[in-house]
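Chain A, query sequence.
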Amino acid sequence: MWRRLDTTAGLGRRGPVEWWCRGIGWGGGAPGLRWRGGRVSPLVHGQELAFRAVGVRRCPGARGNPCPLEAAVSGRATGGRCGECARLDRAHSVAADTLLDDPQPYRVYLAWFGPGMTKVGITAEARGEARLLEQGAVAFSWLGRGPLMAARRTEEVLRQALGVPDRIAYERKRAVRHVLPAAEDRAREVEELHRRARAVGGWTETLEPLDFVPRDHVGAFHLDGLPPLDGTVTELVDGGVVTGRLLAAAGPDLHLLDPGGRCVVLDTRLMGGWALQRVEDGDAFSVPVAPVAVAEPESAQGELF
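Chain A, predicted structure.
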């Protein structure tokens, strides 16, 4: 992909063309890297990725607005925004519970990320499954639909009644993707949660309940047959190189097989705000990687992450 991008853009007199990354998107149900200016590069299973981060990581701004300060941000920050732009980004956010008057219909969903890892959440109906893909939900089912505030109240009621969190750490999601149970077992756990949710009284008076219909994203993410996970990239650094074959993409994560044979996860949220250049054949993978231990299934789901 990187060679194709640079062939299209050409080489400037000052050296390789730089591409400013804005992270990953899941438009149309497929992953793609987003760039400053609106261009999207599709991510294809099995393709080779090879790039170098250059310069200083700069805040990319928020909600289509560039950062007026072009502030430098930490290489380890998954948000990748300065404080002011982060506040702007959340000012009208459903996830932050600051958007209260949206008239469009919303859906409540039950999402499964691994054994013992389920959550309840909401998304605008018009977005379809995009929110589930963005979070890396391996399996899920819709539960109900209706006005935003009714969906928000239902989410909170069910979270407390069922003892499930509203967030699950990405570190835990990543490890279990490499040791997933069979599809029927995934669906069974979501079905049981759906049954329990329907038994909780009250919420069906304000939302239209939806029947259990299992949906699975293993194929969309290409999670079948992943080798054991060896580590995760902790940050990009000036001059640091990432190179490898794309094995899977789930949520913001790219699962790569690096030239040394390691299976490494790159959280694309770490790419936002960096200028990226292609690298030549033979350049070694040289960004910091932390080893990963396989997460144990949860015996109880009441803990918030």
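Residues 1-16, 294-305 have pLDDT under 50 and may be disordered. Residues 164 and 301 are 5 Å apart (CA to CA).
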